[in-house]
Specification:
The chain has 189 residues and is an alpha/beta fold. It has one domain: Flavodoxin domain (Rossmann fold), CATH 3.40.50.360. The chain contains 6 helices and 8 strands. Strands 1, 2, 3, 4, 5 and 6 form a 6-stranded parallel β-sheet that branches. The protein starts with a strand and ends with a helix.
């Protein structure tokens, strides 16, 4: 079994990304398809906007924050991005975190949990697929999309999912585990 990293993409004050990610984390732990589940909050990682002088594919990192980010991502086998939709796209902090690295992302599956208003973040999810496939990541078709997300958040309970959300999360995690198994030999070469 391998490890799953759940990345909280939003960094802005008042965000609900961590609440959604905590629900995804609980679902992933209950699922049992991954030996380890790690929650990664980009607000805590605090990467500055790209400040490495060399292209990431060279792996010649000059800053300690990049070396730490590289080691963290390299040690994870599959990902879930918990991402908001901003103006029909995904947020800059997530793009920045992806762009810092290159080889560390390769041959790893990624599931998308998107949220927003009427579109449930699906436009952002479609946009990021172009980026992750350029890095040889495999986005799984199964995803979780949360429309009008505030209706599912209760102050004292966190995210209160409906059956569709729970079923979608299970389907996404099933497929992540399956695709991770298929891609694993490519990562060891």
């Amino acid at each position: 079994m391998s490890g799953l990293g759940i990345i909280v993409a939003s960094t802005r004050p008042g965000r609900i990304g961590p609440v959604i990610a905590e629900w995804v984390e609980a679902e992933a732990r209950a699922h049992g398809g991954f030996a380890e589940v790690e929650l990664i909050d980009l607000a805590e990682v605090g990467l500055p906007f790209m400040n490495e002088p060399h292209h990431p594919r060279l792996g010649r990192y000059t800053h300690q924050h990049t070396r730490e980010w590289s080691a963290r991502i390299a040690g994870i086998d599959a990902f879930v991005f918990v991402m908001p939709e901003y103006n029909y796209g995904y947020n800059a902090e997530l793009k920045n975190a992806i762009d810092y690295l290159h080889h560390e992302w390769q041959y790893k599956p990624v599931g998308l949990v998107s949220y927003g208003g009427v579109s449930a973040g699906t436009r952002a999810a479609q946009m990021i697929k172009q980026v992750v496939t350029a890095l040889k990541m495999t986005p799984v078709s199964e995803a979780v999309a949360l429309p009008f997300v505030q209706q599912f958040v209760a102050e004292d309970k966190g995210l209160v999912p409906n059956e569709i959300m729970t079923d979608s999360a299970k389907a996404m995690l099933d497929e992540l585990a399956r695709i991770d198994g298929a891609l694993s030999p490519l990562r060891t070469k």
